């Protein structure tokens, strides 16, 4: 009875002499460093945008594999290989569950707020068949991870190109608006000049006829400007009208 009482009074777990493991005093067992580190990573709220418990708390999910490989793994396991991490999970009996595109894992003894259950997770005894299957799974996982990284790089490149196209389109649109405004100003000035000349040559019927014809051309040019192929054609038509006005004077 005394031994039981002492066990209950002592902490449920503490670091033992082995820095690579946690000793569960009341069970007399050690939790492997991999399981302890993985639990700490998942249970850390600062990592929730990268890796976290599911809503039920019976599984955990790697939401951002890129950040997980570049930041989490090197900080805790001294490597950045997702396939190696998954292989270790498989060794301890974890299973990948849920959507095939989601990195979600489950173990009956690996749950939120139940850290004491880690001592019951046992490492699988390797067999030749299991080792062969595990090697194949590792190769497939590494191929999938490589493809995911390549797809992410292509997505980032496409996003950069899209931003450049949008910026170019904005510049061209602003230039078009500016050209249209200049076109309207030129047309207004031409009409003012024509009305002035018509007032000057009121007694000359021939000049009046010529100027009236040119004025009609400016109106037609203005109505057709919306159908023109571009500001260059509009500018050429205005130069032509200007030469007609000079010739009519």
Any key phrases for this structure?
alpha+beta, four-stranded antiparallel beta sheet, three-stranded antiparallel beta sheet, 7 helices, 61% helix, disordered N terminus
What does this structure look like?
This protein is an alpha+beta fold and 249 residues long. It has seven helices and seven strands. It has helices at residues 2-9, 33-43, 65-77, 82-91, 128-200, 205-224, 231-248; strands at 14-15, 21-24, 29-32, 51-53, 59-62, 95-97, 103-106. A hairpin with a 5-residue loop joins strand 6 (95-97) and strand 7 (103-106).
Category by helix and strand content? alpha+beta
Please, what is the average pLDDT?
76
Please give the radius of gyration in angstroms. 39 Å
> What overall form do the CA principal axes indicate?
rod-shaped
Strand proportion: 5-15%
Chain oligomer state: single chain
Sketch the major β-sheet. 4 strands, antiparallel
SSE blueprint and pairings:
Elements: H1 2-9, E1 14-15, E2 21-24, E3 29-32, H2 33-43, E4 51-53, E5 59-62, H3 65-77, H4 82-91, E6 95-97, E7 103-106, H5 128-200, H6 205-224, H7 231-248
Antiparallel strand pairs: 1-2, 2-3, 4-5, 5-7, 6-7
Helix pairs in contact: 4-5, 5-6, 5-7, 6-7
What's a quick, concise take on this entry?
The chain is 61% helix and 10% strand. With 249 residues, the protein is α+β, with helices and mostly antiparallel strands. The protein has a four-stranded antiparallel beta sheet, covered by helices on one side.
